[in-house]
Amino acid sequence: MKRCKNKLDILCRSDSRQSNSGLSYSRLALSVLMASVWFGTGLLPAAAQQGEPVNLLSIAPTPADGGQIAVNSPLDIDQAIDKALAVDDAEQPKTNPTIIAEPSDWAIDTPTELQATESSATKPVEADLPAVATASQTAPNDSLGTNDVYSSAKIGRRNISDVGLAAIGVGDTGNSQLNSLIWRGTSARDAVFLLQKSAIASQSKAITELAYEVVARQSVPPSGANNVAADLVEARLAFLANGGRSSDLALLAAQLPEAEKWADWRRWLTKHYLMIRDDVAACSIVSRQITQTMDPFWHKSNVICQAVQGKTGAARFAADILAANGVDDPIFFSLVNEVLNNNLATPADLAKVDPAKLDSAHIVLMDVANRPIPLEGLAVLPKQMAETVIKLKFLGPDARMVSTFDGLSRGLITHRQAGKLWRSAGQENNDPQLALAQLDGKGDALTTVLAWRALDADTQTDRLALVAKAVKAEINGGNGAVMLPLYAELVRNALVDEAVAANMRFDDLDVAPKMAFLLAINQPNDTTTLAAFAGNGKALKAAELLRGLSGDAVDTNVISALNMWHILPVLEAAGVAVDEQGWLDLVKNAPVSGQGFGGLPPLLLKAVTAAAEARHVAETVLLANWLLHDVALEKTNPADLAAVIHALDMIGQGDVAKAFAHEIIAAHLMQRLAAMIPDGTQS
Question: Collapsing DSSP states into helix, strand and coil, what is residue 523?
Fold first, then answer.
């Protein structure tokens, strides 16, 4: 008799010399045990009965429609026992069974290019916006995923709900350098602490994005997760919420159990689904909730569900029931009437809506009714809706511009997508000079976007002089990394105009060197365009320096020409070779000037390096994100930043380490660009 695996080992330790009576006794004991498992609980899938790892994240198999048992399922107890006992030792797993599943169909869709076609703010933005997960992506069979198995099944003294809850997440974040063991070496309580402390955006887009991937990813939970599973999940949700990562949040929230503790997240998930027009997913949740509670939120949502599904009579009846039960919400009932009767909103109707009194239900109904949603209305939505809001089709002009800038700053959309959305936000009639003057005095999101739009629409042949001023204002205001690619796009578009191109070739206003330097930072590989600018020497050197990061070598003449010896630690940490020199001779012949840099917090930096040396991946990433949250890369000691690059490389994140090094050098070059541009609105 072959040695049995799994929980049956203790009953299967008879050897080949066992008597026939003993064998019969063992088989009888196994029969009783298998009968209780198979008919009593019905929780373990067939794979477990075959000695394979038990996937505690999947719902137990059920008979197919019509009462038919799946083809591969045992038909009786004897077959079940035979399958359990027939597993050969060579086929058994050599390690402990894993409880973590990483379904391939849970992957997040990559944002695709926007195709905004409407210019009016009251028309829908028919655009391919960043893909947002639907209910079908969150769980194979149910929009809220795992629940029943969590509430009843137990393995020994460990509650499956705790194990499964701690393991929820996104199956594939797209980072091939991450695996499911990112929490190895970190305790669950330490993980909660790190998640709470690092739930902030760092000054490195690359590291922040990596942190979101680590937090969202479905992985083996940290040690002791079953003891603090709820705290761990709450901390992960809060981390993603702070970043406005609506898609990732939806994927996690859909996997939460149907417990009262997670009621607020069920409400949020419903709002998210309604706003992105995933009516099937939203209404599936609503239909369950209205049978369990009289909470007006759910019954308002039911009215919306009936309306968007074309069930006009049911929607009116549900609205009447709400009114009869004393629900006082005139804005809601007015918008419902507007949707059901296909009434177009008049200016008088719009004036009646107080933006300060709007809530999520009103926002959904306004979008359904093709009514422009004001900027003030979006203020009622929490920050975890940042990505969701971008999907709304009928945002007003200001709301469209500000929400897009917010999404761009958070890394939720690309610069190309942002440019298309801004151009679709109504016609531009701002005077470029006036817009630039406002930008100099007040660099908030709206003035930033208005300045870019005004310069985008400008057709003057000398408009690039104003672009230089706008770029300086954005760099000084802290938006340089966000806005520089968009202004670089304006420069490239302007060069199609032969008069503008001639100005750059025969530069009388000393604008060409600045524009060339801007393009070098943005696209260092585009040397053909750089060659068309007068006075492009510095720009070509800057481009060569940035290209060296991918080419793994930099000529010291380039560093010397730019006087950027202070970035040597960054280059070395990124694995970029620097020519061996007579360093003493260089010191003798080159001006040596000290530059003041601020250091990173020593204790926190030490924690980063220690975690990296121990190969604690998630811990290193979260500590690095925390470390860099309030520092300016161009003002921080390059040696300290180099230590962070080393740490990223030690945990297998070489691509992120290179990207971070690029961000550091680009930040220094942007400061150089800002210094080249004189103050004022005229060149």
Answer: coil
The reported pTM is 0.77
DSSP state string for 95-150: SPPP-----GGGPPPPP--------STTS-----PPP---HHHH-SS-TT---HHH
Q: 575 with 541, same domain?
A: yes
CA distance 661 to 669: 13
How many structural domains compose the chain? 3
258 belongs to a structural domain? no
60, 91, 122 — which closes off a domain? Answer: 91
User: CA 445, CA 431: separation in Å to the nearest integer?
Assistant: 18
Q: How far apart are CA 541 and CA 543, in angstroms?
A: 5
In sequence order, what are the residues at sequence separation of 6 or more whose Cβ sits closer than 8 angstroms to the Cβ of residue 156?
Answer: none
Note whether 607 and 581 are same-domain residues.
no
Q: What percent of the chain has pLDDT over 90?
A: 61
Cβ distance 585 to 592 under 8 Å?
no
Across the range 553-562, mean pLDDT stands at 90
Beta-bridged to residue 598, according to DSSP, are 636
Q: Which domain holds residue 610?
A: 602-670
pLDDT tens digits, 667-683: 999 999 999 999 864 44
What pLDDT shows up at residue 42? 39
- Same domain? For 490 and 534 the reply is yes
Residues 558 and 477 in one domain: yes
Any domain includes 628: yes
**Where is pLDDT greater, at 87 or 350?**
350
pLDDT tens per residue, range 359-378: 999 999 999 998 899 999 88
Which pLDDT band, with edges at 50, 70 and 90, does 175 fall under?
A: confident
Mapping DSSP to helix (H, G, I), strand (E, B) and coil, where does residue 187 land? strand
Indicate the length of the chain as a whole number.
683
Three-state DSSP string of 581-635: CCHHHHHHHCCCCCCCCECCCHHHHHHHHHHHHCCCHHHHHHHHHHHCCCCCHHH
Which of 91, 119, 144 is the C-terminal boundary of a domain? 91
Kindly state whether residue 453 falls inside one of the protein's structural domains.
yes
Same domain, 666 and 520: no
CB atoms within 10 A of CB 122: 15
Instruction: Decide: helix, strand or coil at residue 223.
Output: strand
**Tokens 């996997």, located at residue:** 255
Q: Which of 197, 200, 1 is nearest to 84 (CA)?
A: 1
Which of 199-213, 343-357, 365-379, 415-429 shows the lowest mean pLDDT across its residues? Answer: 343-357
- Examine residue 487 and state whether it is found in any structural domain, yes or no: yes
In this structure, are 514 and 619 located in the same domain?
A: no
Q: Nearest CA to 622 among 247, 166, 199?
A: 199
Instruction: Indicate if 585 and 613 belong to the same structural domain.
Output: no
What average pLDDT does range 570-580 have in this prediction?
A: 90
